[in-house]
Amino acid sequence: MNSEATEERVLEAVAERRELVNEALDDDVPMKSPERLYEATRYLLKAGGKRLRPTVSLLTAEALADVEPLSVDYHAFPALDGSEIDVMSAATSIEVIQSFTLIHDDIMDDDDLRRGVPAVHREYDTETAILAGDTLYAKAFELLSETGAAPENGLEAVRRLATTCTQICEGQALDVEFERRTEVLPEEYLEMIELKTAVLYGAAAATAATLMGADDDTVDALYRYGIDSGRAFQIQDDVLDLTVPSETLGKQRGSDLVENKETLITLHARQHGVDVDGLVAAADVETVSEAEIESAVSRLEESGSIAYAEAKAEELTANAKRHLDVLPDNEARDLLADIADYLITRGY
Amino acid sequence: MNSEATEERVLEAVAERRELVNEALDDDVPMKSPERLYEATRYLLKAGGKRLRPTVSLLTAEALADVEPLSVDYHAFPALDGSEIDVMSAATSIEVIQSFTLIHDDIMDDDDLRRGVPAVHREYDTETAILAGDTLYAKAFELLSETGAAPENGLEAVRRLATTCTQICEGQALDVEFERRTEVLPEEYLEMIELKTAVLYGAAAATAATLMGADDDTVDALYRYGIDSGRAFQIQDDVLDLTVPSETLGKQRGSDLVENKETLITLHARQHGVDVDGLVAAADVETVSEAEIESAVSRLEESGSIAYAEAKAEELTANAKRHLDVLPDNEARDLLADIADYLITRGY
Predict the structure, then answer these.
(1) Interstrand relation of A77-78 and A84-85 (parallel, antiparallel or unpaired)
(2) Which of B33, B203, B270, B272 is deepest in the core (most CB within 10 A)?
(3) Residues B269-284: pLDDT tens digits?
(4) Do B34 and A177 touch (CB under 8 A)?
(5) Which residues form a coiled coil (chains A, B) (predicted)?
(6) Do A131 and B162 touch (CB under 8 A)?
(7) Count of CB atoms situated within 10 Å of the CB of A325
(8) How many domains does chain A have?
(9) Minimal CA–CA distance to A296: which of A347, A345, A259?
(10) pLDDT tens for residues A166-212?
(11) What's the rounded Cα separation, in Å, for the pair B105 and B111?
(12) Both ends of chain A: CA-CA distance in Å?
C-alpha cells in the first residue's frame, strides 16, 4: 500500500464532494428569522471541516448504484428499485448531527476553539449555543425524512439516526465518567470510542445504504465498515498526539498525557506496569518541556503501548475493508477502502 | 358551560391515562448504563406533570377509532386501515420532547426549580443536563419511528415532530430576543407563543392522527385544534399570573410585571397608553407589595388589557373546538373539547 498515493486520492475525492456538500448545507440550513439563532446554527458549518462523513455517505450510494463517481446528481440519485432519491440529504444530515454534537461538546468541555475559530458558545453565548445545537438536531431528522426514498427505508434510516444519537450521548457521558474513575479497562475504552465517535461513521454508511434499498446484510456490513474505520480513526488520533511534532499537530505534542486523558495507549501501559500518572510532572501544556514529553513517549514505546495501539488500528482497518466485499467492485468501493486506510495513515 | 363539571371530567380523563403514560415512560426511558446519564434523563419525567399532551394524543386516537375511551390497549390500537399500532409511543414521544425542552430551557433561563424539585442542571450539573436533554431528544424520534404504523404515516409523523422541534427552538430564541427589544407587537407575541408552546399541542394531536391513517384534512384540523388550544393555554397563563392570589399560584402574583416580562396583556396596555414600565416600582418579587400589584392590576383592568387577553383566549378556544368537527361524535371528542375549555377555565 502506497500511503502517499492513497492520501492523494482520498483528499481529491473529498475535495470534489466538499463543494457540493457545502452548497447543500447552505440550502438545508438557510439564514432566516430569528437571525441570531440561525447565524449561530450556521456558524460552525461555515467554519470548515473536511466533510469526511458525508463523503462516506455519497461514496456508499455510488458504490451500491455501481455508477461512475460524480456522474449522477446526488439530489436525484438512482436507488436500487429504480426510484430517484436525494442521497445528498442523507449526507448532510450526518454532517449536521456532527456539527450539533461538536457545539454541545464544546460547551460541556468548556473548549474555546473549534476549527480555528471561537466555539459557538464563545462567539455567541451558552444559551444560543445550546439552542443552535438543538435546532441542528431537529434539522437532521427533517432532512432524513425528506429524501424521497421508499417510506420503509426512510423510516428505518430515521430509526438508525435516532439510535446513533442516543449512543453518541452515552459515549460522551462515559468519556466524562472515565475522567473521574480510577480504573478503566481497554475494552471499556474501545466501547466508549465506538459510541462517541465510530457510530456516526457507521450511520453515514448505513443510512445511505438503507435509503438506497440495500438488503439487511449489506447495510449491516457497511455499518461495520463505518464502525471499524471510526474506531481506528480515534485510536490513530491518540497515537498522533504522541508521535507528531507540535508544529505539525497545531497543539502541544503529548497534551493528552499532560491533561491525564486516558487513551488505549495509557491503558495498555498501566496494564504493563508503567506509572502513567508519573510520566509527565508538568501540570499544564504551557509549562511542559519537549524533553519531558520525549522521555514519556520513550517509556510508552518501551512498554509496547504505542505499537499496541497502532496494531489495533491496523487490525480494525483491515476488518473495515473486508466489510466492503458486499459492494460491487468499482471505483467508489476502492475510494471507501482508501478512506479507511487514510484514517490511520494520515500524518495529523 | 359548567366549568366545574368540565374541570372534573378533564382531570378524571387525565388521571386515568397518567398511570398508563407513566408506566410506558418508565419502559421507554429505562435505567441503564451510563447510570448518571440515565438517572438525569429520567429525573424530570419522574418528578410528575399532568401528562396533558400525551392525553391529547391518546384521546385523538380514540376519537378517530370511534372506540369507547380506555376500552382498547394503547400498545395494540386499531388504526383506520385495520392494522395495530402502538399509539402510546406517539404519546410518550411528545412527553419526552416536552421534558427535553424543559431541561434545556431551565439551563438557558437559569431556573432553579421545576415541578417542585431542583432543575436537572441543579440536581446534577449543566453538562449532564445538556446531555440528558439530548438523550431524550433522540429517544422521542426512536419512539415515533417504532409505532408499527404504515411506514408512510410513520415517516410523516417523524417529519412533523422534527419541524415542531425546530419551531420550539425558534420560539425560545424569539422569547430571549423579545427581552432585549424595546418594542414587540401583539402579533409577534402571538407568533412567539405559537412556536414556543402551541406547536407541541398541535403535534400531540397531529402525530397521533397521522399514525392512525387519518386523511390530510383531518390531520390538519386536529393540528389546528392543538395550536389554538395551546395558544389559549399560554394566554390564560399570563392572565392567571395577574388575577390569582399568590397562595393559590404558588408564586408571587404579578411576577411577570415585576420581572418586566412582556405578555399579550402588557403589549395591549402599551398600545393603549399605559406606562407599563412604571406600573411596578419594585425590582424583584421579594420586595414587591400586594398593594402595588393590586394597583397595577387595576390599571390593566381599566385599559381593558386583561379583558382583551381573556377574550382572545376564548376566541382561540372556540376555534379549537370547531376544528374537532372533523371527528366522529363520541366521548373522546367531547373530552378533547373539554380539555380546550379546561385550559382557559382552570384556576391555576
Answers:
(1) antiparallel
(2) B203
(3) 999 999 999 999 888 8
(4) yes
(5) none
(6) no
(7) 10
(8) 1
(9) A259
(10) 999 999 999 989 988 888 999 999 999 999 999 999 999 999 999 99
(11) 8
(12) 19
